[in-house]
Design goal:
The complex is a heterodimer of chains A (114) and B (118).
Chain A lengths: L3 E4 L2 E4 L5 E7 L5 E8 L3 E10 L2 E4 L6 E3 L9 E3 L8 E8 L9 E2 L3 E5 L1
Parallel strand pairs in A: 2-11
Antiparallel strand pairs in A: 1-3, 3-8, 4-5, 4-9, 5-6, 7-8, 9-10, 9-11
Chain B lengths: L2 E3 L4 E5 L4 E3 L2 E3 L6 E7 L6 E7 L6 E3 L2 E6 L4 E6 L8 E10 L6 E5 L3 E6 L1
Parallel strand pairs in B: 2-12
Antiparallel strand pairs in B: 1-4, 3-9, 5-6, 5-10, 7-8, 8-9, 10-11, 10-12
The chains are: A mainly beta (114), B mainly beta (118).
Chain lengths: 114, 118
């Protein structure tokens, strides 16, 4: 049971390049989330998705694009990476997105933008 | 706006000491949920506990215990007889309804880094 996986686990890129972070879950959960973790801020929601082809912005969406063509995949794209997007990115999922549900997190992707 | 504050940025204890991690939250909702997650040095986020706003009973799980007090808007986490393996960053989080009522999202505190020394 793989659960939720992210790739790559580590990525170094340069300012202005496009980067896509992948997230895959095997539970058929409806809801998926992208968070970024920065020192002093905890985790902040970037985007979320309620189902295939349904996505919406979170707290810090600027500079990011998401898509969800299949239930199990939720890629996050940085269209033109900036140094301020250096962070650790976590994907998460929950079955129905209810506030009482536990969100389960992937292992994270460490992104460094030079 | 909803907010979670973990005022302790770093805590260092010696093994076998008891340690309490503080969490204070703000919310206008009458129904809400509180969570604790552990992030060990390996980096993943591990779910520890969920508590709903209607249940103020304290919970104990082995060496871990949680004290939920609505009167002070706090949800503190105590580790008894700490061990080196407890060294991690601990996050408190509050679940709120999305504006369109489609689901819940987590509001995280800044995290407390706990270091347990042998």
């Amino acid at each position: 049971d793989a659960g939720i996986t992210q790739s790559p686990r580590y990525k170094i890129t340069e300012t202005g390049r496009q980067v896509t972070l992948m997230c895959h879950q095997t539970w058929s959960h409806s809801y998926m989330f992208w968070y970024r973790q920065d020192l002093g801020h905890g985790l902040r929601l970037i985007y979320y998705s309620a189902a295939a082809d349904i996505t919406d912005k979170g707290e810090v969406p600027d500079g990011y694009v998401v898509s969800r063509s299949k239930t199990e995949n939720f890629p996050l794209t940085l269209e033109s990476a900036t140094r301020s997007q250096t962070s650790v990115y976590f994907c998460a999922s929950s079955e129905y997105g209810l506030p009482q549900e536990t969100q389960y997190f992937g292992p994270g992707t460490r992104l460094l933008v030079l | 706006a909803q907010k979670v504050t973990q005022a302790q940025t770093e805590i260092s204890v010696v093994e076998k000491e008891d340690v309490t991690l503080d969490c204070v939250y703000e919310t206008r909702d009458t129904t809400y949920y509180l969570f604790w997650y552990k992030q060990p040095p390996s980096g993943e986020l591990v779910f520890l506990i969920r508590r709903n706003s209607f249940d103020e009973q304290n919970e104990i799980s082995g060496r871990y215990s949680w004290n939920f007090q609505k009167s002070t808007s706090s949800f503190n986490f105590t580790i008894t007889a700490s061990q080196v393996v407890d060294s991690a960053v601990y996050f408190c989080a509050l679940s709120e309804i999305f504006g369109n009522n489609q689901g819940g999202k987590l509001i995280f505190g800044q995290g407390t880094e706990l270091s347990v020394k042998p």
